[in-house]
Design brief:
mainly beta; four-stranded mixed beta sheet; three-stranded antiparallel beta sheet; 1 helix; 7 strands
């Protein structure tokens, strides 16, 4: 089982780098940004979130091969993450966005 998990992680895209939550606008929506990965088979990204009391990700929004996405949820009420997805459907580990003024 461990070998299968390691193989799956090795085939998946890398964790998105530079993930940030833009905090300059005090609104009820959340703007997330990240750097695009260099994998040739990168298909896109997913925004994940969970309530602060949940131990696992409970919601997923598939987004295209973009580096910015707005979510209609307050950045104060949930934990957000960003993960990459390749054409085979394999997912990277989640990147935890850091707050950023811009």
């Amino acid at each position: 089982m461990n070998a299968a998990a390691l193989w799956s992680l090795a085939q998946a895209p890398g964790t998105p780098r530079g993930a940030k939550i833009i905090t300059s606008a005090l609104t009820n929506s959340t703007d997330l940004v990240w750097a695009r990965g260099t994998e040739p088979d990168l298909a896109g990204y997913e925004i994940v979130w969970r309530e602060t009391t949940d131990p696992e990700w409970t919601h997923v929004i598939p987004v295209a091969d973009v580096t910015r996405h707005a979510v209609d949820l307050s950045k104060d009420n949930v934990f957000f993450g960003v993960r990459a997805v390749n054409r085979a459907g394999l997912r990277s580990p989640v990147a935890f966005p850091q707050p950023s003024a811009g």
